[in-house]
Amino acid sequence: MIWRSREPRYDVASGISQGARDYQEDAITADFPVGAEAGFVVLADGMGGHAAGDVASKIVLTEVFSELKFHYADVQAFERRAPEILRNVADLANQTLRDHAMHHPETAGMGATLVVPALVENRLWWISIGDSPLFLFRGGQLRQLNEDHSMGPQIDYMVEAGLLDAEVAANHPDRNCLMSVLMGSAIAKVDCPSQPLELNAGDIVICASDGLQFLSNAQIEKVLTRYRKSRSTEIAERLLDEIHRLADPDQDNISFTVIKVNDASVRPKPARASQDSVAIARPRGLTKAVTDPDLLPVPPQDAPPTFEPKEAAALVGTALAEPVGIEDAADDGIEAPEAPAVVVVPRRFAALA
After folding, report:
1. What is the pLDDT of residue 166?
2. DSSP state of 4
3. Cα distance between residue 351 and residue 161, in whole Å
4. DSSP-derived secondary structure letter, 115
């Protein structure tokens, strides 16, 4: 008899291509540990040109991923405050962009979109800023879950109202202008639902940069319909094949993650006392590094160490009026430390670039 483990809850694969661009401004990562009941994707599409847009997307991805990875150590605690946590990590990434631009003026004006689908069992949370789409394929139909923070929806509305010709709208120069993006300033629009979307077995979620939208929704839907029973790796390959087949000279960077939901069941929650999560209480400070720590001098082995009044008081618990050595402390009836004390005093700090 051959024992086989049950099929993983999620089948996940990613695809990425530079397209027809000279450099890659997309950054994407997916974290779905084998056997886990939860996982997330972080996708950032940079703007600002070479040496700026790619930097912005990497900064956003790094900050958001590290924070979410920390919070996912306690998934139940994450879910209790999911919208708040997702907004907080986006704000932190935005703040980091602002700080980076202050120290590197040549990158002023850089920015990035952000879309993060966060899954826990059959529940899908997300935060979205910009125009990177989050798709759901269910029952043979594809629909976009998140808001599009570009001028595209406004232009399409003008077509529906009879104010603009459809052909003109399709090629409108302002169509891809962003109304909200992470770039260190106030974030104009954030799409972060207060309640999760319940997923079904067989659903396919796609988190992508707008480069995937060089394919129409109908073309994406056709690929998903044909390969819906295939592994996520094959679906990703087929989508990339379709894009390359377009041979569009203006093809944008493409990055996406395909998430197939194999299991939409809900596991019973283990009973445990309610308590605050350590993850939720994580301090919100920017990472610092000690570049040149100063050490208080250590007395020679053959000489008794001396302490200034304040240090001595801290060590022995008694306020002293004069500097004392170990022998003097013993004479005064004060218990001396067993070994010389070394105190690290980080005097100069520098923010990591």
Report:
1. 85
2. -
3. 52
4. E
Cα–Cα dist 184/102, whole Å: 10
What is the rounded distance in angstroms from the CA atom of residue 48 to the CA atom of residue 54? 8
Measured CA distances, 252 to 41, 92, 215 (Å): 20, 27, 11
Work out the pLDDT band at 65, boundaries 50, 70, 90.
Answer: very high
Round to the nearest angstrom and report the end-to-end CA distance of the chain.
56
**Closest to 243 in 3D by CA, of 235, 254, 233:** 254
Phi then psi for 195, rounded to 5 degrees? Answer: -130, 150
Class of residue 303 by CB neighbours under 10 A (exposed 0-12, middle 13-18, buried 19+): exposed
Task: Return the sign of the alpha-carbon dihedral for residues 152, 155, 157, 159.
Answer: negative
In the chain, % helix, strand, coil (3-state, to 5) comes to 30, 25, 45
The DSSP annotation for 148-177 comes to --BSHHHHHHHHHTTSS-HHHHHT-TTTT-
User: Residue 167 class from Cβ within 10 Å (0-12 exposed, 13-18 middle, 19+ buried)?
Assistant: exposed
Residue 114 β-bridge partners: 129
As a whole number, the mean pLDDT across the chain is: 82
pLDDT one-digit tens code per residue, 150-165: 998 888 889 888 888 8
Confidence of residue 324 (pLDDT cuts 50, 70, 90): very low
What is the value of pTM for the model shown? 0.75
CA 274 to chain centre: 27
Residue 19 buriedness (CB in 10 A; 0-12 / 13-18 / 19+): buried
- Compute φ and ψ for 130, nearest 5 degrees: 115, -150
pLDDT in tens, 217-250: 999 999 999 999 999 999 999 999 999 999 999 9
pLDDT band at 168 (very low <50, low <70, confident <90, very high): confident
CB 255 within 8 A of CB 211: yes
Q: Residue 11 carries which DSSP code?
A: E
DSSP secondary structure code for residue 321 in this structure: S
Least confidently predicted of 131-140, 208-217, 260-269: 260-269
